[in-house]
Amino acid sequence: MLRRKIGLSVNITDDLETFLRRQARIVRATTALSVKELDPGDMAVLAEATTAGADVLVTGDHDFLEAADSPIEIVSPRGLKLRKAS
Length: 86
Description:
Elements lengths: L1 H5 L3 H14 L16 H12 L4 E3 L3 H4 L7 E3 L1 H9 L1
Parallel strand pairs: 1-2
């Protein structure tokens, strides 16, 4: 997706994927969530992020960004940049 959306080279995206896989921690959600704006797949992602103790979920997915009852903060990539700048 990074190659297509923002034109990163194959080498850069491969390096980024390798880095993320080394840093990742695989978790399974321990509680089910119910957020009315999200479909079951999105709720599973949010539940796993919550179980992992994420402070923020960064996504460009509009359903996530419009979710009002999320247990964690959800921001766009631009929102993360603004959050870090303040």
